[in-house]
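hey so i finally got around to running the thing on that chain from the lab meeting. sorry it took forever, my laptop kept dying and i had to restart like 3 times. anyway pasting the input first so we r on the same page abt which one it is
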Amino acid sequence: MLNHQSKRRAWHRMTFLSLMLAVLAFSVIVLSVSVARAYQQKGETVKADSGNEEKDDVEADETSPESQSFLQYMMKGFGRFFGPLFLLLSFVTVALVTMNILQVRRDIFLPDSFIKEFENKLTVNDLQGAYETARNDESFVARVLVAGLSKLNRGYSEAIEAMQEIGEDENMHLEQQLSYLSLIGSVAPMIGLTGTVYGMINSFRVIATSPTSPKPSELAEGISMALFTTLGGLAVAILAIVFYSIFRNRVARFVLEVGIVSEGLMNRFTTVGKQHPAGSAASARTSMAPKQE
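ok and heres what got predicted. didnt touch it at all, straight out
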């Protein structure tokens, strides 16, 4: 059982890393292409206007906000430190959301095909077949039922306790995966606030060190950093918190359904512990005939 859980968790880690690397590579490619196109268009514009305008006018146009694309202006506003940091947070958030979309599904927790097959095995009193069916399935409810069936020779109460322990362990594992989204939702606004304070400090430094009244363009760099970092932090945090709440509610509902379904399937063995309090596994199996409804 432990080996099965370790393999499953290793597969989850590999899935997360693969998704994160895929999103990172795709985003870098898109960003590189966008920046390359923006620089190409800028170079073509400057080249076309160089024969008709004076050199000073061309240099002024190159540095004017109108000559920059919004992507260039946004990346410049974030700065060399906060820009890559928010890109990294965005990549990780998208990777976590994608991974949880693939994992927090009803087919992963309660597959209908497995439930029907397991019930059919119990109906014909094939306990060994039901155990093998559950052991070969990787769903949440299958792992819970395997824990209960493996302890059934010790009595019904022992089986229920084993099922509850496995359910709590799996639930804790899922909560740990979701906690990364909650962490990003809490940290991203703080990073944005740090960028806001840093940008305002730069703007006030320009005012304090300028011998004359500073131009608005000289203050715009610090103010734009303050606004863009605030916007980036809020955007990442809102995305992370919204999906964290959605996934947490779905996990809670699915875990509750797993508990109800698994205990319902095990209810037909309520007399095992009473009839064979200290019996072996073989003697317990002979008394596990399903109840007639």
